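Justification of resources, computational component.

The compute hours requested in this renewal are based largely on the per-chain cost of generating structure records like the one below. Each record pairs the submitted sequence with a full structure-token output. That output is archived, and it is also reused by downstream analysis tasks.
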Amino acid sequence: MNLRDLKYLVALADTGHFGRAAQKSHVSQPTLSAQIKKLEEQLGVSLLERRPRNVALTEVGTRVVARARRILQEADDIAELARESRDPLAGALKVAFIPTLGPYLLPLVTPRIRKQLPKLQLLLYEYQTGPLLERLRAGEIDLGVLALGVDVSGLEVLPLHEEAFTLAVPAGHRLAKKSAVRAEDLAGETLLLLEDGHCLREQALDVCSRIDVHEAEDFRATSLETLRQMVVAGLGVTLLPELATQGPFAQAKSVAIRPFAKPAPRRTIGAVWRKSSTRAPAIAAVCEALKKALDGLS
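The structure output for this chain reads:
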């Protein structure tokens, strides 16, 4: 049993197909199939149910794959530990953002990181909060940037920025005439929200939980930019985080952005990573760059 064979097994578990697993592993299908068969013979158990068009893990196969993932992560950590001893601010760092942060924060922070950390290669990903935390805990990413207020137990957490929510309404809307709005002003309005799985959806519902607003049941957006266009079309109003209303995103003349009166509803942007991570110096440097970029918005 070796790490290569465990990687093949995990790839097969992820894809459910010998051909796709071989492609993912950069080997031929016969090679991967032979190594999996050899692994089963060594262990004396069947790890897979072989079906005409796909494969599925047996009960023991599922348990073996779970252990294999941990072993492979430990092996990766050993390699990272050696790399860190040579230069802790070099190499690849896998960073994931939630969709309501990444498009707006990355243009601000990536030039800063490239200048300050020229040897560090950022591999960037975008996931909703739940999948992001799952991949972080599984060791698939090194650092997550998200809105706090979710279960981050067992992880290191660093609050980075307090971000206010704003209200987006059509330019000719009655609330566009106000210099600032209150949650009570939304009574009777149609509230446009993101689809399930986005933490911003829950945060917006929390802000409006005590007033009579109507969620648009026939519209669920997949991104903030879709929400913005729905507001332009006059389908309702929505809440946007402050970061999504600045720079080039502030140019839309058909949408009026109004702040909430103090105390304005807000969310806390934070960074999370595994306590066992061997990339602590690189993570700290990236977090510092993120914090400075966000502080520059205040």
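The radius of gyration is 23 Å. The CA atoms of residues 46 and 125 lie 35 Å apart.
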